[in-house]
Amino acid sequence: MGRRRRRRGSLRAKAVTLTTVIATAAGALALTPQSASAAPNYTGDPVLYWNNVLLGAIRTAGGPPGPISRAAAEMNAAIYDAESSYQLRWHTMTSDPYLQAINYPALLEGPGEEERLIGRTAYNILLKLFPDQTTYLDNKFKERFGTNPTDFDLLDATVVKPIVTNMWNFRNADGSENQTAYTADGKPGAWLPTSYPDLPDPGCTRASDASTPEWGKVKPWALTSGSQYRPSTPGTYSSYDSLLASPSYAAQVEQVRSLGAENSTTRTTDQTAAAWFWANDANGTYKPPGQLLDITARVSRDRGLTPYQNARLFALVSVAMADSAIAEWDVKYQTPIDLWRPVSAIREGLGDTGWKPLSGTTPCFPAWASGHAAFAAAWAGIMRQYFKTDNITFTASTDEPRSPVKTRTFTSFSQAAREEADSRLWLGVHYPWDASDGLALGENVATWVFSHTMRAAGS
Length: 459
What we know:
Elements: E1 18-23, E2 29-34, H1 46-61, H2 65-90, H3 113-129, H4 134-145, H5 154-171, H6 240-244, H7 247-259, H8 269-277, H9 287-303, H10 307-334, H11 342-349, H12 371-387, E3 394-397, E4 407-410, H13 413-426, H14 432-452
Antiparallel strand pairs: 1-2, 3-4
């Protein structure tokens, strides 16, 4: 069926028995009950449950945002195809699947069938993505279903395995395994490692430490290429010499030098709080894509979405963020300017060797443009188009251990995205144009994703 999905549905969780669907001699399917080792606990929406499991896996695995966003897209796009298959069989698809909805045979809907399709698909995708977290994933499966994930369920053969295989084959050899090391341009203004004696970062001492330099070449999920929405180089300058000689560059550096300094007197208390609230750079946090998925879940609960609605929403958000990462890393590494970070611009370029960013450390890849900004704009763009309004009030949370506040309330998706983008300036790790160009890039990606994949009926 190509990249198409459909949705809307109600949770049908019956926590009494497991049901195995077996083929009869005539080829029809009958329902045969089996006793479960424990009663299922289908509390809450299954899509939200498995996204929370994903966040736990991300916290344990760590790593750069590109692979994290890819994992989220892989799980949520597969969940959506599983849910689309359920809707196709028992209800009505109201939006296109991502890859394919399976029209599987069955005479009667089994107990907890929607739960089983979503949960077994999510589990099998996560197991492939995080094989070293098998115990954690098995325990989360048992917590939900009361049984082992290896226990027989015919839905594995008729729906789950085809969907997981389709997704795995679709992303096989997509370029995400490319480990080619980065070679620095070696010019003033070009990115260089950001570890200093008074700001040590053992993971960023050599040019080859630069994180995921080939991610901009990964096969997109919906875009035609990673360079589809590539902006002009900062300030339209195409060389390091012309960039560094420009008044625009000097103004950019001065803004972050003032607002992003550890001991800044121009940054407000609220800006400092926002800087830490949106950070989530360190391993052990759910990273920027995970924070936005957590906020998506909070909005979903506030709005009372169904599993079908959630499956599509989370797939759209995840695909948009995954493509934003690809497009953003194309900007960082595949354009003429691999811009050095503010700490390098100020220490190496201006000779202010005592300057420290509020963050203390800096992500180990070029500054332009901001990944946080692109993720936030892609998320906000999908949320705005999905809910058909920007003006929804919601409360966001963070698991950044250094954040002085754990929640912040916003009156629109765009307001939150703008603050996340600006927070990188206040943290001292980005220039203003990193934020603005990242926002524009993410917005373009969201519009493309929403209009080209998983479209609602009649759109």
